[in-house]
Amino acid sequence: MDNNTLADLNRMIMAIDHECCIKVKEIRLEASEEYNRIKNELITSRKIGLEREFAKETKEIAKRQLREESKLRQHHKLKIEELKAALLEEIVQNVREAVQKLSFDESILQSVLEKISINEIFVFVDQRDIAETKKILSRSNVKYEIKQMPIEGLGGVIVCSKDGREIWDNSFETRINILIETHADKLNTMVFEQ
Question: Where do the coiled-coil regions begin and end (predicted)?
Fold first, then answer.
């Protein structure tokens, strides 16, 4: 081969080599771009998945926290209600003890005697009030039998017809119970006003 042909072949090889290098660079660039695109897609997809999982876990934690707070509030509310009930019961017990020490009031018996229209009655009063009750009843036109009131009555007076059909309960225990039933909300507000 002559020099010209050899030089042409060298130029052709160099041109092919140059084109191959350019093509390799293009392929590498395309591969790198494709790699980065796939990597970014995977990262974005994984990031979205993690964000969703994080949001879900955050919501679950918030729900759990609300449930626990609600349980605590309910528990404390129940304890407060128990303490309130105990305090009101203590107040009522103190009232009962104070009422037991009260002396008999003629007006209590008179208010019952004015309401009845029967002539034969049983009268229940505290042991210490029997003498006073006899004195009051002796001035009336009613036939009576005085009996000792059970200690639970706390004093006052209970009048009952002999046949047991009519009862007028003016005992202190009944008065206290009526007071509690009719004014429980007011008592609660007065004692536990916030």
Answer: 52-86
